[in-house]
Amino acid sequence: MQIIMKSSRETHCHFCFSETPADVVFCPSCTIPIYCSKRCQEQSAGHISRDEDTNLGYSTNVANLSITSSCKSPRSKLFAEHRHECGGAHWAAVLPADVVLAGRIIAHSIVKRMPSGKSFAFSGPNLDLVHHYDQHSPANKLESHIYAIVLLLCLQNHYRSDLLWTEDSLSQPTGYTHGGQTRNQTSLELKLQSDMPKLVLLIFQIKVNSIAIVCMRSMDRGPEHTINRGFYVAEGAKMCSVEQVRVAQALYVSGSLFNHSCQPNVHAYFLSRAFVLRTTEFIKSGSPVELSYGPQVGEMHISERQKSLQENYYFSCQCSSCSELNLSDLVMNSFCCPQSNCLGAISESTYYRSKENFVNVSLGGSYVCKLSLPDVSKVDMDMENVAKSLLQNSGVSLNIDHGCCMSCRSCIDLSSALATSHREESTIDRLKKHTFLDKTLITEALQSLKQLKKLRHPYSKALAQAEDTIAEAFAKVGDQELARKHCEASIQILEKLYHPKHIIIAHELIKLVSILLSLGDGASAAATFAQAEAIFSLYYGSHVEKVLTYMGALKKAVIDV
């Protein structure tokens, strides 16, 4: 079951979630949902059978976890996912998306269970999914109870006498004494009880298990344009940049069964409403199949990943990347060693290595995690140069404080370095805020980049982002040669933080392709495009041009140069 996000209601189809054309199709019963075509409108109303339009083609490394189906109501009408939201007060436009999604799940279950022309007792769907009710704050629990009451009233108003909640209720009468008399009280207790209403738990199940449906949007043409409108190079003065935009929210019960990893071995994406998983590496028989719930190595530091997963999913990640020391986490937010001949990283975190060869990491005095040292065979030259002190002399306890080099143990004034780094980064970020750039802004940004290189580690993410911002600035003013230089520098850093075949690298390579096309360097553009296409094929297989619809036009542009 899916629902479009409020921010995308007027710009994206409410069924397939693609960007809508100028002439939209409305729901025949109300004007709330809009569709990109008559077909999507009919599918939303349930006119597509269970076997139609769901075959993605068989592949050994693809799993389709969504089936478009239709269910008939007692009056032989096909189920429309938002019919219970039509007419009257538009409560679905007011309530949060996860609450409205809960209403759709309930409504679908009602239609499936409702005997012809008769009232029935209904207790809600039984979803075998975690809800972590006991770990939510009292305020969140109270809020969800209130939303559940409002949602039930809205559903009762639509179904009238067809809906009778007899097995569970939203509140449990309890007795209390006042003035010597016993009265009945409706209690919204803030602790999980065995008879807690299923509707409340359903809302929490959606909060914890729902998946964001995303599309790719161009960052160069403004929010009104998306990358799936086609590739372009605007007079050779821009890079082709894209970002993921959350357009809808969905609950896939099968998809919720997969564990998280910060270095997943499967990639998740969407074809309309179909949730597709594709392996990105060989997985041995009996090994876990793991996807990412969002946080990934290279994208976030281990402390940020742990915090995000704890706050949103209520668990501490123990995947291989969160259990073993890795290069990306060592260098992502690090500073460079003051010794010119040392590639060691200086971190804001404190690392304590025990005699048992475990490393305890703390940040700002707070414990973050315990990591094992990688096997010698996994330690490459980069990692050894970055953290020589941690990796050598096994069996010896060692403490490396924040602000100290993990290789030669030289120290810097970390607070001063942080302040200077933030100031220089802010100067560079000013380039993003101006549509028209003058020579002074770019000159100042280049000076800041020079200072940043003296502070930040060569593999740090701050440096990669700075190089990317300056590359885009040079592309805007038409200096494609310098744009190429800084874009390539950014990619080289990102390959250290992620890995050379990560999908992030492919998106960055597409930026480089647009610059090379502007330079008229057809051979380099073709080679770079082939590299990006190979990575995208690893993640999307034969669906590359369905998900990234600009790829066909870009390929033609590369061939025509």
From TrEMBL:
SUPFAM superfamilies: HIT/MYND zinc finger-like (SSF144232), SET domain (SSF82199), TPR-like (SSF48452). Residues 197-294 form the SET domain. Signal peptide: none annotated. PANTHER family: TETRATRICOPEPTIDE REPEAT (TPR)-LIKE SUPERFAMILY PROTEIN. This is SET domain-containing protein. It comes from Zea mays.
